[in-house]
Design goal:
RNA_pol_sigma_r3/r4-like, globular, Arc Repressor Mutant, subunit A, 182 residues, RNA_pol_sigma70_r2, 2 domains, mainly alpha, Rna Polymerase Sigma Factor, Chain: A, DNA binding, DNA-binding, 10 helices
Length: 182
């Protein structure tokens, strides 16, 4: 018998009401995966553990800010982890050490990307939508997400004017949003 899908949204809403059991269930559901991602981003287990801990503290404290209408609960949780990790890297004067090939693999059909992105149905949908965006719009979005680069850093890296990069990111995000809500 298939196990029912975990309802992130309901658990976050329960956390907003200070429901300890919902928070524990959320932690049990995602802590291991979040730790794996944090280790990948930060390169050190001790720092990754601190980052995951800080992310869960923020999730608990800010659960009332989660809004179903703005996106999935799981994406909201991972955005908190991602920002915590990127802030930690920036405080060390570093960015995430991922090459551009990894970034592109996240949006293509390689077996490595499939393992990473097909863990949840929403990731398959996101990958499909990313594949439909032109490369010159997709690449800056992926550089911002996976490397944590600013618009200016992306413009420098791609040797493209800053205004063009901002426009491509805006257009790409708009296309991504339309695809995901279609």
């Amino acid at each position: 018998m298939a196990q029912p899908l975990f309802d992130y949204e309901s658990h976050l809403e329960a956390c907003a009401r200070q429901d300890d059991r919902a928070f524990q269930a959320l932690y049990q559901q995602e802590a291991a995966q979040m730790l794996g991602l944090a280790i990948t981003l930060l390169g050190r287990r001790d720092q990754a553990e601190d980052c995951v801990h800080d992310a869960f503290v923020q999730i608990w404290r800010n659960a009332q800010r989660f809004q179903r209408a703005l996106g999935s609960g799981r994406a909201w949780i991972y955005s908190i982890l991602r920002y915590r990790a990127l802030n930690q890297l920036r405080s060390r004067g570093r960015t995430v050490e991922l090459d551009d090939d990894f970034i592109e693999r996240a949006a293509d059909d390689s077996p490595q990307a499939a393992e990473l992105l097909e863990q949840q149905g929403e990731h398959r949908e996101l990958r499909r939508c990313l594949q439909n965006i032109e490369r010159n719009r997709r690449h800056p979005i992926l550089l911002a997400f996976y490397r944590g680069l600013t618009h200016e850093q992306i413009a420098n890296r791609l040797t493209t004017p800053l205004g063009t990069i901002k426009g491509r990111i805006r257009a790409g995000l708009r296309a991504l949003q339309e695809c995901l809500h279609a």
